[in-house]
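user: can you give me the structure for this one chain? tokens are fine.
assistant: on it. calling the predictor now.
[tool input]
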Amino acid sequence: MGRKVLVLNSDYRALTVCNVPKAFLLVYTNKAEVLTKVENQFLRSVSQVLVMPSVIRLLSYVNIPYKGVMLSRQNIFKRDGNKCVYCGAKHDLTLDHVIPRSKGGKTSWTNLVTACKKCNARKGDFTPEAVGLKLPYKPFKPSFVVFLREFAGANDDNWKPYLQNKDGVD
């Protein structure tokens, strides 16, 4: 059951993504309700056939003061499509500081990209431009909703109405 389920707060704002067993447990214990289901897929027990949840909503509001995307190796790889930003290779990936740390570059969303070992070695302790490499886009920190919508890699069409930017703030 590798399927993921979008979890909404009671006010219908996206909170997180969880696996099907966790979503089922939240619904079964009356902490959440199923808003949308996966068509033609079911959870089966000895005596019951239940819908496969795609989106659930918590019945009690959970106060989360700030929901951001954590800076991690895996999240940088997701943002960059699990490929080298310089050549597009999908193997031997590592992180590259666009502006090298020795030249004052920080370890941040806006200075880290995914690079293959070959391109990273070619770039060395220089900027991409100095060695003839080109960034296809400026590195950025995705907002939480944008991250879920674009980079989580597990969303389905049932999630789209709940991941729209309704109030101008992601």
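assistant: here you go. Residues 73-131 form a domain with the DNA Binding (I), subunit A fold (CATH 1.10.30.50). The helical segments are 20-28, 73-79, 117-123, 144-151.
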